[in-house]
Each structure stands twice: as structure tokens, then as C-alpha cells.
Design brief:
Length: 70
């Protein structure tokens, strides 16, 4: 299951939220839900981790950085 789906001005984005995905099992669990979505809308994992990354188009972003862009 995906934690949040945001729709604004006909733009859809999918979000998973986790305190941290530094643990491989946690990362795999969070990615799995987003990989099940079979469209091309942006997909994000929001965490408190300082690390940001890209996993086959699924972007990991820090919560504070994400809030700064909203």
C-alpha cells in the first residue's frame, strides 16, 4: 500500500513515508509498494535520513528538504 497519493492541478505524485530506510529490509518494503504502481507519475520516499537517492526513478528525499520545496 502507498502511504499518500497527492493530486494537484492534474499532477499526481505517490509517497511512502518512513523515519529511515537505512535498513535494507525497510528500504525494500517501502520500494515494493511504489513499484507496484504501474504508471509514470513521480514516486517518492520521504525520510529523516540525510541521504538522498534514486531507485529506478523512485526518489528518496529528506523530509525537511521536501517541506522546503512545498
Amino acid at each position: 500500500e502507498v502511504d499518500f497519493v497527492a493530486v494537484r492541478e492534474n499532477k499526481t505524485e505517490y509517497y511512502q513515508v518512513a523515519a529511515s530506510v537505512l535498513d535494507e529490509n525497510t528500504l525494500a518494503r517501502e520500494l515494493h509498494s511504489l513499484k507496484q504502481v504501474k504508471d509514470n507519475y513521480p514516486k517518492f520516499i520521504i525520510t529523516l535520513d540525510d541521504y538522498t537517492g534514486d531507485y529506478d526513478g523512485i526518489r528518496q528525499i529528506n523530509l525537511i528538504d521536501w517541506l522546503d520545496t512545498q
